Amino acid sequence: MEHQKTYTEEKPYQCDVCEKWFTQSSGLIRHQRTHTGEKPYQCDVCDKSFAQHFYLKVHHRIHTGEKPYHCDVYDKSFAQNCYLKVHHRTHTGEKPYQCDVCKNRLLKVLV
């Protein structure tokens, strides 16, 4: 039943701090950690902590060297899918971002 709310516009769970609404209670729980600073997921190698299990999993690849996302064109692998997507743009020529000052097109946002 929780999953079905994803397909409707129903968002019955509200954050009592910032009043943001969520479709699932688990989304609200994860969000509330941004307010509390709670980081219950701790790396067993370096003791760094994370608010979400997903980020711990990605972080752990630093220690293991795991790079599960592979380029089909070059013999190159990446720890995160987002890095593969940026790399893929070197093959397609896609430059989806534009500098507000000089209007130059960019592969990725530079902060």
How do you describe this structure in short?
GO terms for molecular function: zinc ion binding. By secondary structure, this protein is an alpha+beta fold. Helices cover 32% and strands 14% of the residues.
| Count of DSSP H/I helices | 3
* SSE string: EEHEEHEEHEE
Fraction of residues in β-strands: 5-15%
Structure classification: alpha+beta
CATH architecture of the domain at 69-106: 2-Layer Sandwich
* Largest sheet, strands/sense/barrel: 2 strands, antiparallel
At the fourth CATH level, what is the homologous superfamily of the domain at 69-106?
Answer: Classic Zinc Finger
- CATH level 3 topology of the domain at 69-106: Double Stranded RNA Binding Domain
Question: How many runs of DSSP E, i.e. beta strands?
Answer: 8
Which regions contain 5 or more consecutive residues with pLDDT less than 50?
none
Average pLDDT works out at: 91
Bin the helical content.
25-40%
Tell me the span between the first and last alpha carbons. Answer: 40 Å
Please identify the oligomeric state.
Answer: single chain
| Global Rg | 19 Å
CATH class of the domain at 69-106: Alpha Beta
3D architecture notes:
The chain is α+β, with helices and mostly antiparallel strands and 111 residues long. Among the domains are: 3-36, Double Stranded RNA Binding Domain, CATH 3.30.160.60; 69-106, Double Stranded RNA Binding Domain, CATH 3.30.160.60. Helices cover 32% and strands 14% of the residues. It has three helices and eight strands; from the N terminus they run ββαββαββαββ. It has helices spanning 25-36, 53-64, 81-92; strands at 13-14, 21-22, 41-42, 49-50, 69-70, 77-78, 97-98, 105-106. The strands form four sheets. The chain has a two-stranded antiparallel ribbon with strand order 1-2. The protein has a two-stranded antiparallel ribbon with strand order 3-4. A hairpin with a 6-residue loop joins β1 and β2 (21-22). Pfam families: zf-H2C2_2. This is Zinc finger protein 271-like.
